[in-house]
Design goal:
The protein is built from twelve helices and no strands. It is an all-alpha fold. Helix 1 runs parallel beside helix 11 and helix 9 runs antiparallel to helix 10. The longest helix is centred in the C-terminal third of the chain and has 28 residues.
């Protein structure tokens, strides 16, 4: 599950949905969702490590450098649209949508079709550097991130393709998604940790530690190759994967309904 989390967190395929599916397949019960919350931190730290020099430069440059302040403001404003929706709708999302394989399957298929459409008919890219994304485009990507509250949509997928619709090229859109993931996922982790901390018992430290380490390692290994891959090949393989997996899930759900 740690490997699954790390591999899918920054790909446009929905790590949350993959974890839910993986847990069901192996019969793992994540009491209080504490395992899921804790291993996501491994993925966050991996991308922060990969971009550590930029983080250091921005933090050190905030008092004196205009570009550092602009970069921080850009991410803050992009982070804002999804934050209140996540807080207000959290109980419904985790209590209802996360339990619905029908919703996840539909989100996989529709997201894949949207990817294919954007790849083929999307606007011409005018932004090639994620750090130079105009503020209004960054805010627009933030609104797309809010769609990812629906399991199966994918936070990275929503932000990447939102970026492409707003004129970022593939690589810039993917990197902007990584940058935006840092405040978004750290904020989500803090909120969720405060809710699940009482379930963080000593007997679960072992499994959480293993999941955390493997989530960190697999995310560390996948981010840079993913950037190079989508720059050269594009997102169509991920789109077809989503459509295929969603179709399989729908068929299994249909057979399950027929049996019951």
């Amino acid at each position: 599950l740690g490997i699954l989390q790390g591999l899918t967190e920054f790909l446009p395929v929905s790590s949350t949905a993959h974890l839910l599916i993986g847990q069901q397949l192996i019969g793992y019960v994540d009491e209080g969702s504490v395992f899921t919350v804790m291993i996501q931190l491994g993925s966050i730290l991996a991308v922060m490590w990969l971009y550590r020099q930029r983080i250091i430069d921005v933090v050190a440059g905030l008092p004196t450098k205009t570009e550092a302040r602009r970069f921080a403001l850009m991410l803050f404003l992009a982070f804002l649209p999804a934050a209140p929706l996540a807080l207000l709708g959290k109980d419904f999302v985790t209590g209802a949508l996360h339990q619905s394989m029908t919703v996840i399957a539909a989100a996989f298929v529709l997201g894949g079709l949207a990817m294919l459409a954007i790849e083929r008919f999307g606007p011409k890219a005018t932004v090639t550097d994620a750090a130079a994304t105009p503020i209004w485009r960054a805010v627009g990507v933030g609104f797309f991130q809010a769609i990812a509250l629906i399991p199966g949509v994918s936070r990275s997928g929503a932000t990447i393709f939102g970026g492409m619709l707003l004129g970022l090229d593939r690589r810039a859109a993917a990197e902007f998604s990584f940058f935006l993931a840092m405040p978004t996922m750290v904020g989500a982790f803090i909120v969720e940790f405060l809710e699940v901390k009482d379930h963080l018992t000593a007997d679960r430290v072992g499994e959480i530690s293993v999941g955390f380490v493997f989530a960190f390692i697999s995310a560390l290994l996948v981010v840079k190759p993913f950037l190079n891959f989508v720059t050269k090949v594009g997102f169509a393989p991920f789109a077809w994967y989503r459509i295929g997996l969603g179709a399989v899930m729908h068929l299994n759900q249909h057979r399950h309904v027929q049996r019951t």
